[in-house]
Amino acid sequence: MHKRKRPAVTTINFSRSKDENLGATTPVESLASTSGFSTTEKRLLFEKTTVADDGRIRRERGLVALQTSDDRPPTARGDIASSPDPIYELYAGMDPGDVVDEAEEGPRELRASDNPLAQWTADHRQIYLEEILRLEGRGDHATYSDCRRCGLSAAEFRCCDCLGGGELLCAACTKDGHRQLPFHRIQQWMGTSFRRTTLKEMGLRIQLGHWHSVSGRCPLPEPAAGEDFVIIDNLGVHHVNLDYCGCGEGGLRTVQLLRAQIWGATTTNPRTGATFSVLRRFQLLSCESKCSVLEFYQTLARETDNLHFKKDTVRYNEFMRMTREWRNVRMLKRAGRGHEADGIARTQPGACALLCPACPHPGKNLPPNWENAPLELRFIYALFVAIDANFRLKRKDVSSEERDPGLGNGWAFICDVQAYMEHVGKHWNYKQERSHCVAHDAVDKPDREARGTASSGIGAVDCARHNMKRPCAVGDLQLGERYINMDYMFFRSVAGSSLMRFVVSYDIACQWHIHLLERLAHYNDDALLMDGTGKSITFLVPKFHLPAHIEDCNLKFSFNLTRDVGQTDGEAPERGWADANPMARSTKEMGPGFRRDTLDDYFNDVNHKKIIALGKSLMCALKPISRAHLWW
Length: 632
Known about the structure:
- With 632 residues, the chain is α+β, with helices and mostly antiparallel strands.
- The protein contains 16 helices and 21 strands.
- Strands 9, 10, 11, 12, 13 and 14 form a 6-stranded mixed beta sheet that branches. It has a 5-stranded mixed beta sheet with strand order 19-18-15-20-21.
- Helix 5 crosses helix 7, helix 6 packs across helix 7 and helix 7 packs across helix 16.
- The longest helix has 40 residues.
- The relative contact order is 0.07.
- This is CxC2-like cysteine cluster KDZ transposase-associated domain-containing protein.
């Protein structure tokens, strides 16, 4: 786009020049004759810019008269005091009343820094390679041979993890500097190259139980069993010399390890431990990247020794057990069970699950007398839930409930397995009616994904508006998406609720809801009962699934044709499954209890991330509304 050439401009130069008769300043240079103003009048240049919807800029410029007095320079407003100092203002303006349309400035020219990868490849890659090779030798520390700290012994050792620029020290100074950093990796200079060594080989011993003393030493140390203690840390798998407190001040050995933030693999003469830091790292990685325990452990083993890492995999089973215990205790801690008088023993079903704070919870986030709201306002306190099944999260027929019962049965999202399986076994022979809509596989072919598995997948009930799992509303499927499974999860999720209105989204709701109450009466299970007095349940089909149904369903079960549901689409579970599906790569090989513990922890992590993001999500949703309000 070509810009219009600017017309000639007039330079207005004001300076303070006292006029004896007028008592005011006079212009040093007069305005151009085209301005239309007298040369004795004092004027101020103004500019008004308007940006159109199409991006074009309209700029108007003009001159306004200045107010003057006998003892102050010209000002635009007479009610604002001005400095008596001389004024000099230079304007590169246009003639009064002239209007200019200008195009927006185009993008600036590209610079080398706009493509940092190409810049690095062309200018710095060789430097990086040379510096990496330089670190293979002594580098800056080739000019001395004795330890610069004590000067008593040869400087042969350096730490790979300390920020010291590869400084070489003697064995004694290296040990003294790592008494609080016993998991750092050490290298020894052998004359022409470095070789890997350990602080254990150098004689460093880790003393537990005496953190209260200045020296940290125990007068009666007791070595760990077998002198073969292994500690798994973020930096690798470390063989260490470990001493317990034997004088009695340190307490139990298990307590001594925990106070050093080391998780013992067993409670009787443990020989393996893991730092709290590495356990937390694995928990976060398993939720974010869906890595398995084996993949994470082998990474640590290779970090320690990439040539002989296979020998360190003997502690894999111990590490796997510690990760399960860590997840379980962290879940109990966050649920506040450590502050309860009855502790862990009386943990109630679903007590460890993080709840959706935006859903209605009587007694928590609802106003007084909410249940007496007028009929036309009850939608404000409605609970939206969505039901769905996932056939990716299956489990192979390995292990058993007897060998692997799990650590938190029914405490979070997966319902109590004993009560659930009793329900399934009792009504196993129930024959569900065929679909009156199109041929839904979930209705007519419920066993399509069950061959060769102990669990063909999982069913779940989600918060339909905020995509969070609900407590005690997840369970294993045995022969696909059968009504006896999905009924249990739905009623277990809403049983005992005092809410008055429910909106239920399910991709086969048109068939599933037909004899729902008759099936509930047939189950005769107190855990599934809900008081139906004054309650209403609306059954709908998710928006994406609805077009696959017959026309009658498209009219009766449409979110778009239903009052008081807003922009809810009912597809919340599908979004959650997309992130959960990679978990199947590791959970399908687990025993039943291990798998339940892992999924409970994962669903809690998902709800946690949703909760902390609700504020930002709400702000993003309100910004367009606030802009529209300000515009009008």
